[in-house]
Amino acid sequence: xxxxxxxxxxxxxxxxxxxxxxxxxxxxxxxxxxxxxxxxxxxxxxxxxxxxxxxxxxxxxxxxxxxxxxxxxxxxxxxxxxxxxxxxxxxxxxxxxxxxxxxxxxxxxxxxxxxxxxxxxxxxxxxxxxxxxxxxxxxxxxxxxxxxxxxxxxxxxxxxxxxxxxxxxxxxxxxxxxxxxxxxxxxxxxxxxxxxxxxxxxxxxxxxxxxxxxxxxxxxxxxxxxxxxxxxxxxxxxxxxxxxxxxxxxxxxxxxxxxxxxxxxxxxxxxxxxxxxxxxxxxxxxxxxxxxxxxxxxxxxxxxxxxxxxxxxxxxxxxxxxxxxxxxxxxxxxxxxxxxxxxxxxxxxxxxxxxxxxxxxxxxxxxxxxxxxxxxxxxxxxxxxxxxxxxxxxxxxxxxxxxxxxxxxxxxxxxxxxxxxxxxxxxxxxxxxxxxxxxxxxxxxxxxxxxxxxxxxxxxxxxx
Length: 464
Prior knowledge:
This protein is an alpha/beta fold. The chain has 17 helices and 9 strands. Strands 1-2-4-5-6-7-8-9 form an 8-stranded mixed beta barrel, surrounded by 4 helices.
């Protein structure tokens, strides 16, 4: 238990501070979720003790429910389960607010109902919290809150008589709740407007970054069981003039939503092909492969295949050295179009790998139908392979599946010698991760490999 508590505290601090995890919006939204969870816990305790002293046990039960769901949402937030935490928060608050409004706060000639005012703020908060989720979820939660508000505001009926709080408590409570709900609503509208402004500014900066060539590729080497470099994965970075080096997690989502991911992806492919051509002139690097992540929106472009084939014609290297990484989520829809594009490119020699295997929805029949060459074991399984029996079992399963289907398997996110040894013992032959090297510019990768050949310690990360 002490270890679990310590891990929870470390996760809290990482989620509160960590600027590298996403845009300012995501950090702000995460902090709001943490504060909301803490507030639910605090209010559940304070009001529970207060109403327990009054002998109002129905209210105490509601406060205990609020406290419990606050703990659950806090734990889910610390585990980085954003959507689940949001669903717990909004679901519990919606039920508790409606329950309080109906049972404890019916309108009378002396005291109007005020509890239902929180539903307005809750509806606006749903638009913020579920911004990156399915629109049906985002607007469904918001409309549920607003519909409940309309019903409670438009009726004076006392649906369940006999549970109303005394007027001595409800009169000052009406003032306090109206003030609190109004302040919450104003703050949430401010967040929405700020978020819209930030998104517009960031989108404009992304367009400028494309024009001014502020993007660059970093390369993380991929090695075999003997420590020999097989190639690398190309990873996009943004060299921002004022923010410094920006990680893709801070701008890829917006690029996807705005459509800028298509020209960005085209630039990545052009740069990768030029790099493969440069390596082909070097005796040591001529056999290196380069893996490039392809976004769903980019791959679905009608001209994706002819544009890539034109790139291959302009650059002199073997197409088999270019590896396109697809994700499992890409395979859920429009399988026929995906298969046709993959077969066309595979016929020209381009290879394909399935990234983050085991975290999506692909089936064995899907793998059988597609011209895949490699499976990538997701780093989340590799990270827990020594401590979680289920992760170890999944890793062994993927390795056995690759062997059965004649597919190469590479483990990403290898950070320790113990993980490396486990993977080797279970038949894994290709590796990628901080144990070998962090992603570095091409000069750093080439210098590191030359240092390895000369028997010198690598300048960019672990040892092979």
